[in-house]
Write a structure and sequence with these properties.
Shape: globular
Largest sheet: 6 strands, parallel
Radius of gyration: 20 Å
Number of strands: 13
Strand order of the largest sheet: 2-1-3-4-5-10
Helix content: 40-55%
Order of helices and strands: HEHEHEHHEHEEHEEEHHEEHEEHH
Structural class: alpha/beta
Strand content: 5-15%
Distance between the termini: 41 Å
Number of helices: 12
């Protein structure tokens, strides 16, 4: 149980929390996880929008697993808008290898930030989850109301359970304490500052790395895990950021309707289209100019058969993604090449 520090003001009325977000340029904003792919993209997007009052902390400056450090930070800085993008993330291999770490660290990070945000009077918080919160065998496309209607995908169940707990935590605080904490569920993301480590990365950056290395070495083939049949949706991280800023600037009535309505406590964000892993591999093969063949290791797990989010709830508000998959991957591969040249092989 977390005990409220005497330096916090608790029980703040909803009217005092109301934040008119027509202009965020002067709003004090905290981005949890600002060095990750999503967090760094948020920093770029906010700065581009003219928001200079950003409050950032590296892992060395503040350990998000340390309750006292997080509470002291919120007590001192008192940000008004929080993007909770900090999380322990990884692909199938990482989730299978470190399941206890995935559930423990994500639960602790979320609880520390969400509770401290409430105590310090944060006006709006956007909690970033993942499409893996939905059941493994889910009707497609996946609507927000399918949450908790069936068993999860076993390969990432600990991570998914942690994110579901974050959603319920945000909604519970909204119910009990009149907070405005909104849970946003992105689809599979990719972009600059992604993780290209073959042991811990997600499928898209892992394939970019595999095909790039194979093209450079003149390899005759690249092996892809699974059958290549599962379908996945991918969203460029800059599109996610545009969506988050769009949501953050919604009028109070609309924002709170999504944050506080028990039937609308989650909002999906994605591209609205999906591709098979085989199709993804073919696109990356073309972009990296790999000339060999693609092999599929069917002894490896496929994961969830299909994950396509229904993004009607967000598009009806007026938001649309800008990147198609091929142009987005091409942009990320150019970033990857520049990184390789600047700092050597990652």
């Amino acid at each position: 149980m977390i005990i409220a520090s005497s330096t916090f003001q608790v029980g703040i009325n909803i009217k005092e929390r109301t934040l008119h977000m027509n202009s965020m340029t002067n709003t004090k904003i905290y981005i949890a996880g600002h060095r990750g792919m999503v967090g760094s993209a948020l920093v770029r997007g906010l700065q581009k929008a003219g928001c200079e009052n950003l409050t950032l902390r590296t892992r060395q400056e503040m350990d998000l697993l340390d309750r006292s450090q997080v509470m002291n930070f919120f007590s001192k800085e008192k940000p008004k808008l929080v993007f909770l993008a900090a999380a322990k993330v990884g692909g199938i291999l990482a989730n299978n290898t470190f399941p206890a770490e995935f559930i423990r660290e994500n639960l602790v990070i979320q609880e520390n930030i969400i509770h401290s945000a409430y105590l310090s009077g944060v006006k709006r918080l956007l909690f970033l989850g993942s499409s893996c919160i939905y059941p493994r065998e889910c009707p497609q496309p996946i609507r927000e109301e399918y949450l908790l209607t069936g068993p999860l995908e076993p390969t990432n169940e600990p991570y998914a359970v942690a994110k579901i707990a974050g959603i319920i935590t945000c909604h519970s605080y909204n119910r009990q304490y009149n907070t405005s904490f909104l849970s946003v569920m992105p689809t599979n993301l990719y972009g600059p500052n992604d993780n290209f480590d073959l042991k811990t990365s997600h499928v898209l950056p892992a394939l970019i790395r595999k095909f790039h290395d194979a093209a450079q070495s003149g390899a005759k083939s690249v092996t892809v895990w699974g059958t290549g049949k599962p379908k996945r949706e991918f969203l460029h991280v800059d599109d996610l950021v545009n969506g988050l800023l769009f949501l953050a600037q919604l009028p109070d009535e609309t924002f709170n309707r999504f944050a506080c309505d028990p039937e609308k406590k989650v909002i999906n964000i994605g591209s609205g289209t999906d591709n098979t892993i085989r199709e993804l591999a073919e696109i990356i093969k073309e972009i990296t100019e790999f000339r060999g063949s693609i092999l599929f290791d069917v002894s490896k797990p496929d994961g969830t058969p299909r994950k396509l989010l229904d993004i009607t709830r967000l598009t009806e508000l007026g938001w649309r993604p800008k990147y198609d998959l091929k142009s987005g991957i091409r942009q990320v591969y150019q970033w990857f090449l520049k990184k390789q040249i600047t700092v050597g092989p990652c």
